[in-house]
Amino acid sequence: MVEERELQDDVENTTEGGMSDFAKLYHDSIKEIKEGSILKGKIIAINPKDVVVDVGYKSEGAIQLSEFSDPESIKIGDEIDVYLESKEDENGMVVLSKQKAERAVGWEMVISKYGEGDIVDGKVSKKVKGGFMVNVGVEAFLPASLAGSKTFGNLNQLIGQVFPFKIVKINKARRNIVVSRKDAISQQREEDKKKLFETLQKGALVSGIVRNITDFGAFVEIDGGIIGLLHITDMSWGRISHPSEIVAIGDKIDIMVLDFDTVSGKISLGLKQKTQNPWELVGTKYSVGSKIKGTVVNLVPYGAFVELEKGVEGLLHISELSWTKKYANPNELLAIGDRIEVQVLDVDPQNKKISLGLKQLESNPWLEVDKKYSVGQKVKGKVRNLTDYGAFVELEDGIDGLVHVSDISWTKRIGHPKDVFKKGEKIEAVVLAVDSANRRISLGVKQLSADPWDDIAVKYPADVVKDGKVTKVANFGLFVEIDNDLEGLVHISEIPLAEGEKLEAKFNAGDAVKVKVLKVDSLQHKIALSIKAV
Questions:
Q1: What is the distance between the alpha carbons of residues 382 and 396, in angstroms, rounded to a whole number?
Q2: What is the pLDDT of residues 113-126, one digit of tens each?
Q3: Residue 468 forms beta bridges with which residues?
Q4: Hey, which of 51, 245, 385, 408 has its CA 20 to 30 A from 377?
Q5: Can you tell me the distance from the alpha carbon of 315 to that of 529, in angstroms, rounded to the nearest whole number?
Q6: Is-contact 330 299, C-beta < 8 A?
Q7: Coil vs helix vs strand at 525
Q8: pTM to 2 decimals?
Q9: Are 334 and 341 in contact (CB under 8 A)?
């Protein structure tokens, strides 16, 4: 301060002809220092609230102690960078700022070293409207939309932490920098993915974490943050209904890389491939004719799938359930979870198929049918079922015979077996044919009595006129009963009709008519009648 006053006096005492050499030199140095400049300063005093700094000017400057990040570490004699805000305040002191100097130096350093798109480390310093401020050597703005991360539920947890950020915009005029943590993470993942694909190999075992489960598989995040698909068909050699039966979200699993595409970034993963395919040993483990126990794991209309071991299933077809009983659905006999014994009928390891049988564990009753039933033999049985074409008669447990509708009566036209039989009633019949290979026995009821048609031909010679009763009106003629259970046909050509007259309009079932016998065919069991001839 003494030197400055002496210098000032020297300047004031200078004659009009000019300044002294020293005063002129100091005057020139003052003119060279500009406001907004970054100067080197030396700490010459430390006060409770501020720090006095000498920058080589006519007066010192004071800097608030709060501008120092670590006030305890500063000492007299330390050199620091300061920003010249003003050459003189109302007290005649230089106005200086340490923080502004740091920002200015940091700005120059950042823009000289980094550009838009570069990655820079920064510390999240505080929260502001719309986002956060990040110290990357200079304060940068982090919009909240670019700060998000799944690992941080509350974004306030970012404050005080250091992360890599991507510079998305630099405004040099306003000295603004906008950064993105989201883009930095995305870029890092892409780089990690690229590195991983460079080292990835088919058949390699990798570790991963199950991130999501769908109906068709599970998405697994493997090392490096890459997501691969573990398809449901590659989870187990055995049958599974849903991926959740094998894995759960968050599970850490070791899986095999089955395939990958560096262009699309898709990776196919496998879990079952870690173990040997059980079908490779099926040919030697399960021989045709062998008996084995298994568990019913699925029921379908055509049969049941039986698990013989983990990953190996066989089909028990509905036709192989019983020799004698016909099931409409396998659930009539089996339920999922049933433990049953079956016989191996066929093995096809290449197509992963095994055919199984249940009825083969018992003797086939049809093999004895040829010995027990012969053509012409009279048998008794219970009517088990009635259909349009005949009646099924149970001869013994599991053995049915069919009485066709044409074999019920020699003479009477039968519309439906229910007109003659009742379900559950016992009847007598004659064995007409036996086919054990196709499991069929043909029965006849009319054969219990002799064929009457030879006698009918004698009893009803041609041109005999008979009183009859219409039993049915058809579009081709009338069926007329001329004797008990004996019918003949009056063809429409043998019926007198007026022009345009309809047959059904003239006759009704039950009408009495007089007919003449035209012909009796004892072989075809038919009688031709005529009304016109009468």
A1: 9
A2: 888 888 989 899 88
A3: 513
A4: 385
A5: 60
A6: yes
A7: coil
A8: 0.45
A9: no
DSSP 283-343: HHH--TT-EEEEEEEEEETTEEEEEEETTEEEEEEGGGS-SSPPPSSGGGT--TT-EEEEE
Residue 391 is predicted with a pLDDT of 94
Show the CA angle centred on residue 306, arms to residues 304 and 308, nearest 5°.
165
Could you give the CA distance from residue 498 to residue 502 in angstroms, rounded to a whole number?
Answer: 9
How many CA atoms does the CB half-sphere of 180 hold within 13 Å? 17
Exposed / middle / buried, residue 224 (Cβ in 10 Å: 0-12, 13-18, 19+): middle
Distance CA 65, CA 48 (A): 8
From the list 188, 182, 184, the residue with the least C-alpha distance to 155 is 182
- Here the tokens at position 98 are 């340490």
pLDDT at 227: 87
3-state secondary structure 357-381: ECHHHCCCHHHHHHHHCCCCCEEEE
Stated length of the chain = 534
* DSSP bridge pairs for 440: 435
In this predicted structure, the answer to whether residue 292 has a pLDDT above a threshold of 90 is: yes
Q: Per the structure block, which two tokens stand in for 407?
A: 């074999």
Closest CA to 334 of 348, 346, 320, 345: 320
405: DSSP letter:
G
Of 220, 207, 269, 275, the C-alpha closest to 247 is: 220
